[in-house]
Design a protein that fits this description.
Layout (H helix, E strand, L loop, with lengths): L4 E6 L4 H13 L4 E5 L7 H7 L3 H5 L2 E3 L2 H5 L2 E7 L10 E2 L1 H12 L3 E6 L8 H4 L4 E3 L12 H20 L16 H10 L1
Parallel strand pairs: 1-2, 1-6, 2-3, 4-6, 4-7, 5-7
Helix pairs in contact: 1-2, 1-7, 5-7
Length: about 190
């Protein structure tokens, strides 16, 4: 199931964050990192920050658009440090881990992280089924992107361990299976 989960980093400007993200993924048993139009990558600095996660770095997929990064996913979760006016369901990191793990049993899943200096745009967040917010100090709420990825990856790992031990994952707000991102986009195009 870990192989159906990808972390997507949009327009990453600091190569060190890519390496740190690769290391965070490997720490939590994940291995799929997709970069959307990164700045300054490939980079020796990214490789150095990855430490012993070279295998994750070797599998990085680079795409031009967010749509390309999530086209085959049935669950796309966007991250944001700021409150938004977009009326989308907001998850805690723990709820995010549970949703991602449960959905990965059958489908492709993506968690999307934005730019270091301004996060995801409202348009990008609207492409997501859920938003996840890491409750941090309100006086300094902006996490480093690799640190935010580490928190979410940790919660996914905890959900996997909970499921492995037979513990329940709780959520039942959807009564039909989710559609792939690409199908939803075609629907909107048809409208």
């Amino acid at each position: 199931m870990f192989d159906r989960i990808r972390m997507v980093m949009v327009n990453t400007s600091h190569p060190g964050n890519i390496g740190a993200a690769a290391r965070a993924l490997k720490n939590m048993g994940l291995s799929r990192l997709v970069l959307v139009d990164p700045l300054g990558y490939p980079s020796d600095h990214a490789l150095a920050r990855a430490a012993n996660a070279r295998d994750v770095m070797d599998k990085i997929q680079v795409v031009e658009t967010l749509d390309a990064a999530v086209a085959d996913c049935t669950l796309v979760i966007g991250t944001s440090a700021r409150g938004r006016r977009i009326p989308w369901p907001l998850l805690t990191p723990r709820e995010c881990g549970d949703r991602v793990w449960a959905e990965a049993a059958q489908h492709e899943v993506a968690v999307v992280f934005g730019r270091e200096d301004r996060g995801l745009t409202n348009e990008e967040l609207q492409k997501c089924h859920f938003h996840v917010h890491i409750p941090s100090n309100p006086e300094y709420s902006s996490l480093n992107v690799a640190a935010a990825l580490q928190v979410v990856a940790y919660e996914i790992r905890m959900s996997a361990l909970q499921a492995e031990s037979g513990g329940p994952l709780h959520f039942d707000d959807w009564d039909i299976p989710p559609a792939r991102f690409e199908d939803v986009e075609m629907y909107f195009g048809h409208l």
